[in-house]
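Course exercise 7: structure representation. Students receive a sequence record and must write out the corresponding structure in token form. The form below is the worked example handed out in class, using Pyruvate carboxylase (1152 residues). Read each field label carefully; the graders check that inputs and outputs are placed in the correct fields and that the protein name is recorded exactly as given.

STUDENT ID: A-19
EXERCISE PROTEIN: Pyruvate carboxylase
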Amino acid sequence: MRFFCTTHVIKRLCFQSRHAHSAPKVQEFKKVMVANRGEISIRVFRALTELNITSVAIYSEQDKHSMHRFKADEAYLVGKGLPPVAAYLAIDQIIDTALKHNIDAIHPGYGFLSERSDFAQACIDAGITFIGPSPEVMARMGDKVAARQAAIEAGVQVVPGTATPITSAEEAIEFAKQYGTPIILKAAYGGGGRGMRRVDNVAEAFRRAFSEAQAAFGDGSLFVEKFVERPRHIEVQLLGDNYGNLIHLYERDCSVQRRHQKVVEIAPAPALPEGVRKSILDDAVRLAKHVGYQNAGTVEFLVDQKGNYYFIEVNARLQVEHTVTEEVTGVDLVQAQLRIAEGKTLSELKLTQDSVFPHGSSIQCRVTTEDPARAFQPDSGRIEVFRSGEGMGIRLDSASAFAGSVISPFYDSLLVKVTSFGHHSSENTNIPFLLNVLTQPAFLEASVDTYFIDEHPNLFVFRPSQNRAQKLLSYLGEVQVNGPTTPLATDLKPAYVDPPVPAIHAGESTPIGLRDILLKEGPEAFARSVRRKPGCLITDTTFRDAHQSLLATRVRTYDLAQISPFVSHSFPQLYSLENWGGATFDVSMRFLHECPWERLETLRKLIPNIPFQCLLRGANAVGYSNYPDNVIDKFCELAVKSGMDIFRVFDCLNYVPNLLVGMEAVGKAGGVIEAAISYTGDVSDKTRTQYTLQYYLDLANELVKAQAHVLAIKDMAGVLKPEAARMLIGALRDKFPDIPIHVHTHDTAGAGVASMLECAKAGADVVDAAVDSMSGMTSQPSMGAIVACLQGTPHDTGLSLDEISKYSAYWESARLLYAPFECAVTMKSGNADVYRHEIPGGQYTNLQFQAFSLGLGNQFDEVKRMYHEANLALGDIIKVTPSSKIVGDLAQFMVQNRLTRETLVDRADDLPFPKSVVDYMQGYVGQPPYGFPEPLRTKVLRGKPKIEGRAGENMPPMDFDKVKKELEEKHGRTLRDQDVMSYAMFPSVFDEFERFRSMYGPVDKLPTRIFFTGLDIAEEVDVEIERGKKLAIQLLAEGKLNEKGEREVFFYLNGQMRSMFVQDKEASKEIVTHPKALLGVRGSIGAPMPGEILEFKVKEGDKVVPKQPLFVLSAMKMEMVIDSPIAGTVKKICLSKGTKCAAGDLVVDIEP
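STUDENT ANSWER:
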């Protein structure tokens, strides 16, 4: 009698009363227990994970450190105080544990209780689905005598044997007298070779076989039959659903055995006559249908040397060797078991006899901890060293194959199953060679695992190689075949130049700069020091805004680092070096494939003495969206830790609540708060009623009260005229005599130097400038010009014109490397019409590029005019990222729809406005200083909600630990907090950057010309991948296009030949190729194998739930239903019905 706790008894009885006579039920499992251990448990867990089902393990006291316990989602102890095997045979405890933890179904694995019908019945009685045949069929097929009788009834030939199990040696002796020896004894209630003996000395053999069966299966009853001399062991894999449908998945040859346990299994059986194969398969199906078989099972036969075959038994469970069948048919047997147990039909699983076809050949070898020198006696102990052989077509199934694993003496000696697969027919394979290897003296003289390790020493190592060299070759091969990975904006190519780096004396100490004061005394003391300094200080924008304005932000860390030591030694008098933030953050990842944090850290090491300055978009940090406040705080904290000093905090609408978020974050991080007022309009024009001098004074007053360390004027369009500069800076200096004033401008009109000189004279402490060869037009005014003009005056900068000249020479040459992004291709000079259209410097060149690329170069004046109109339509707003983009989007929209400012308002009710404009009108960007334009706002919004305060104010904090864990799972590496912050700012950009870097390695180490356009044939380059470690890479040749649309690219790497195949995307356009599913992105659903799309179960826009069918794939004459792994919306269906696809091709894109 079995007893459970009262609650569980009631639950079970209620279930029985409800389902006593019900038809097969259909359900979806949420939690499945595996009532087993070791390798098979982990195999089932993998299937459960792939189906998004929670996996539950049980473990004995002796297995508390076993791997299967830790691989499961949940694990529970059973059999406390029981012997090791008995713990896994304790039906009462297993069922009780399952009930306590809401288990939907139990998978028995193989061995232990897998063929115990009473266990299957106990599961059903408890309301738990048993994943396997019905108890009745198990009882019949598990009883080898009853199975023999069923075979006879079905017309299947059997080996002579006893009609019932026997329990005494005398019965066995009597059988031997009748049929002669040898005979074979087999456990009546289990398999796997345990309790099985070939018998010549009947009495002794019976005793040992009975004992082993008793220990393994809890019942020592034996079955005896005539031993067939030198047979082949052929078994047939079956699958049946709960509705009478049943198919075979072809046969396996398990003839290579030791102690009647299979050591090598092969699928399909080699050299088996086709007629014999067909008869065996038909008999197996006929027998299974005769008994009403369900789920997975195996029918086993012996085939003698004449081709006669005999049924021997049915294994009513999954087999150890199921892996070879999976490899040749492409059917996941464990997943099929689970789906069938859920109530699905074979047809729903797209499994029909016609659709299952063997493809290639597969061999499984069982590596065990047994000593061949001692008649394969099991061994136990700790594995000190383990290296496994792997390669293409190799599958490993294990649970204890790792260094440090302790092999228990209590259980099966299986260490790892090695399954190989090859795309060849069974008649022409390396199978004979493998079989020969297994019988060689070298194999017999050493343990199995040691043998395999010795034969495959270099295939696999536990410490993954960075493989940087091969990844860089892959990148260069990609560029060679398909062109630049960074789109080039013009037809110009990078020049063959080596920019001249001015020499500095080796060992020369770094001069003291302002950063020393900041580090020693803090931001407030730093600001006081700046204010006390005589003369005018300079911020060098060459490292950021200059190239953002002139070269599309494409300057790489490689070239910045080359000149950094010279800057550190030659310009310690600089107020700051602006080198981070703004557009550089996302562009570095998106187009330059380098980490912005690594850039900052690299430059910090090279320039320890000059303060670094970045551009911070208030509540948006360096992004373009609203973020939770803790993201802004964390960003600033990490930036300071990575080497940032001064944060120029601005807001595109001068919206003070947004500014305060950034300012407070910088203050908490210990940085210098440079609060910036974005300048627009003209304070010297008395006719203008917006953005007056008083407006700027009032705004400055708020920022000073908010504890700004430095006050900045950010003239992003270069519209601060000399007279306006004198008035504004003079008024600010008069009102705020103690705070440093810093002025930033662009030289679009050509008056930048004059304006900065006026600022210096009016009391500015710092002005921005770019080195001469990177100045002018939409960049900053010339550093050399400002320095020369102030030389010898009270505002002398203290900078050396000779050193500036050397600095300029470097950038004059380096700029040629970035010719593809050169703004001078379209912009030949400055233009004073900026005072009218007020387009910011960085945006001006982008708009001009767009106009020329669209063939509208001669209409650029019209584009600029419409920009002015769009700005007025929006209420004459401040224009800097992202508000400048909003104006630009509306301007292009007006041009496309041939609208004027007046008709825009008239037709606004019906126009599909750009999203950026709608977001602005809702208040997501902030509140403009003079309000939103009406009635345009109301017409644009059409009832959409309005945000009256700061958009990010009520956003929940980001859980950085959770995000980090998810990202590490997605990208498969340990991430820094800085990486998490990059993701927080730009999620999709970061993910793509990680995938690119994982594929192509440290491309930031390549010289710039080679990074953009690759190597020339026979060109050689040295690439320093880390200090003192260089790769010598030479491009040798590019091969012709092959039938797959690939070209083979040949290199010398450190003097050794390397080659790779690269898909030629242009030449292979007619060859069907498709985008690939993104690794680590669960909503990116790809084809699991080559095949044809037969049917789609969803359409774009559909809402889907986990495990909902998405499409049907016909692969290797097998139909496979691909389910959704997540809940979400079908964003895009990337292929069409009937499309032939390759493994990994993106089929469905789901947005979570």
